[in-house]
Write a structure and sequence with these properties.
The structure is a single chain. The protein is an all-alpha fold. The protein contains three helices and no strands. The chain has one domain: Methane Monooxygenase Hydroxylase, Chain G, domain 1, CATH 1.20.58. It is elongated, with a radius of gyration of 18 Å.
Amino acid sequence: MATIGDRADATGPAPSAIPRGYAGHKDDHLSRLHKVEGQVRGITRMVGEDRYCIDILTQISAVTHALQEVALGLLDDHIRHCVYDAVRADDAEGDAKLDELTLALRRTLRL
């Protein structure tokens, strides 16, 4: 089953064989995501324990910020590797990557 970001065609390398732009920061991204996962479990526990609304909202804000930081890191990696390499390699490929980046930014910023 293909996932978002698996763009290889039938003649290209398998999606898992393509080095991702975030490969150099993968451990950092995973570490942050594991922390977010723990924070979300904590929020679930807080709601189950009928904790004070403002305390829960504070934790939700922290999780939201942490996810935004992961997103910014991934966008930075994408620009510095995937987009940069595509623009250097071929005008059409570069244009496609820039269009993809614009769409990703729209989704991230909810425009």
